[in-house]
Here is the input.
Amino acid sequence: MSTLDVALICKALGDSNRLQIIQMLADGEKCGCKLLEKFDITQPTLSHHMKILCECGLVEARKEGKWSHYSLNQDTLYALRDFIEDLSLPCKKEKGGCNCK
Here is the structure.
């Protein structure tokens, strides 16, 4: 995962509504209508948030009728996790665990 990809993800997660959406999707796929019920926002505003989450690769969308169904992109989450783990790699190499405190 490139630093540009990580920057886009961090920017997307910099909004509390989008963070809440990610938390909701951690339980599994959700219809846009179910997401909308949990927020005091309009459908166009939800669409804007979902567009940002999809563009950075965190969320995948599929259409069913007039509604979109959203789920987390596990590949992106694993790549982000690996990127973050690599940031602390030098500490992991220390014998007896990390001495950074």
